[in-house]
Amino acid sequence: MDSTLIPLASSLLILVFIFSYLLARLIKSLRTIKNSRLIWRNTYPSIEELHALFDRGDIMLAAVFIASTLQVSHPEIAKTIRAHSTFKTDPWRRIIRTMTFMFIMIRSNSLERKQVIEWLQRLHRGIPLFKFETNVLVFATFAYGLAKSHEYLGSATPLEIEGIVRGVMSMADKLDPKDLGRKVPNTMAEVEEYLRSELKFDTKVLKDINDENSQLSSVWDEMRRQGFTKFLIRPRTSVQLVLLTKFVRRLSNNVLEDKACHGIFESLFWWCIRKLQCFLSFFHYSMCPQVLTFDGTLNLLISGNPRMADVPIELYREIFGNKGAPPISLPGGSLRQFSDMEAHLPRMEIDQRPMPTVLKFRQELKELVQCSYYRGKLSGSPGHPPRHLGVIMDGNRRYSRGRGLNSVLAGHQVGAHKLLQVMSWAFSSGVQNLTVWALSDDNLKRGPQELNPLFSMMADYIHEMMMGDAPFSIPDVRFRVVGDRAILPDYLNDMITKAETATAGNKRFNLQIAIGYGGRSEVTRATKLAVSKMVQEGLSLEEAVEKVGEADISRQTYSAQLGLPQIDAILRTSGENRLSGFALWESHHAEFAIVEENWPALRQSTFLRSLLDLSKRNRRFGA
Ligand SMILES: *[C@@H]1O[C@H](CO)[C@@H](O)[C@H](O)[C@H]1NC(C)=O
């Protein structure tokens, strides 16, 4: 062997050695990252995450296109659309009206939605829109469109797909209170089967749609005339639009023709298109995050053409009449993101004082990491989540004062929204039974000027929950109220009864709100009930008083009466160090955690940390 080769070979060997060593290290550290317990996703999306699902314009547009393509394949609906569509005469205006309509629908509460529907019915006189059957069809097309777009254009997992379908379909029985609880297709498989049975694939109809789609080009022409070239004319966007159209057609045909299987080349082709689309979207979102959101697109379409400036307000007035300022700010002015509207509760304003961006980013990042960490810990923890968690929601008033909100009610509203979040956090951590203390019997001594608005907010809130707005992220919530109902106003009691009846069949999550509740009065009540039950069973009063025992009283607590396990963990917010009588009887064995944050400001990481703490300590006495 040539002697000059020896040093070369040995250094090569050393290099190879070092390289393999580094590679092994890298692989090992990657493995540890993979195995370490960081869980980045909730199984059940929070409300913000669900809204984020609507925040990618291309996905939303694809969903709308797919849904409308499917809808016009339904003979009745096709007739309606053809009779009333002004798409051919003024497409730009028509697009903005449709998008504004969706904007209002998504953001309004159930009372406002009712008005929107009445308006639509006025508009489409004589056509049975918004019958239950039509609702199911419309929602099914949208569920399919949204789920498929997320699968193809985003990276939704099968579980998320099912979540989207369930979320959308859970709205189908809630447009009209009399339809509540009627059966709707609820999984992707059921939706597909349902659509196949309802729709008729008709090449003539599809040709019509394509004709209408080509009307879009007149919008582009008008844009160019308006000198509005900065956005949609860009080649990248055009490529996206072409892909989107193709993609929509393919997915719609998929349902209509029942062609599940494709050849390998076709599959490969679509795989590439999907990747390209994802890549382009990614590019778009990293460059100009606002523009391609649903709101951003709408805003651009409006601001791009002076003729369109008044269209949203006009539509708003058409629907709601001429009464004051819109409760939701309509597009056209500043760019708004969906996250601004975190919940749909009536008259609700979320505290939005701006925070310095860098600080906010750092806090968000920290929160994300902490939540992931605690989630991982929780899933691997040897303890078990509480079988029944009780929460003392304290600090709404302090929060209002500390934040300088204009009324105490504002703090309660933010607090009400917080409950929705906490429900989804609790549910995704394995808690299924949650009792929250909203108002004590002592609080009822506060003056009517504080109580009346609070009662009316509660009634609105319960109505929203029942109509499906609030627990959008966890359908299947059974709702009940514990406490002294006799002291509540009639309209609130009626609303509670309605909601309890409507959700009586739900099984996956039990939410109890304690209103007019006090621990001592619960124990007094339970004792009385225990004694009177024994008297009814034939004992004399003296014998009953003599014989009544702890077990008899336990059987008459609210939890026992509702068929729930005893409250075995209690969380109190706002740093207060006492139980104040909450779950007085049951708290005997319950674990207790206190957090400093006021209820409306409770962070997910804090909640998860307390839950972890509670589950570790949980010894399940007397279960
Ligand atoms: C919640 O309560 C129900 C009884 O209504 C019980 O079957 C279920 O196991 C409880 N959930 C948990 C997580 O303990």
From TrEMBL:
- InterPro entries reported for this sequence: MPAB/Lcp_cat_dom, UPP_synth-like, UPP_synth-like_sf
GO cellular component terms, alphabetically, are: endoplasmic reticulum
| GO biological process, any | polyprenol biosynthetic process
Q: Which GO terms describe its molecular function?
A: ditrans,polycis-polyprenyl diphosphate synthase [(2E,6E)-farnesyl diphosphate specific] activity; oxidoreductase activity
Which keywords label this protein? Membrane, Transferase, Transmembrane, Transmembrane helix
Recorded hits in SUPFAM superfamilies, A to Z, give: Undecaprenyl diphosphate synthase (SSF64005)
List the transmembrane segments.
Answer: 6-27
Q: For the ER-bound oxygenase mpaB/mpaB'/Rubber oxygenase catalytic domain, which residue ranges apply?
A: 57-259
Q: What is this protein called?
A: ER-bound oxygenase mpaB/mpaB'/Rubber oxygenase catalytic domain-containing protein
Q: Which organism is it from?
A: Orbilia blumenaviensis
Instruction: Give the organism's phylogenetic lineage.
Output: Eukaryota, Fungi, Dikarya, Ascomycota, Pezizomycotina
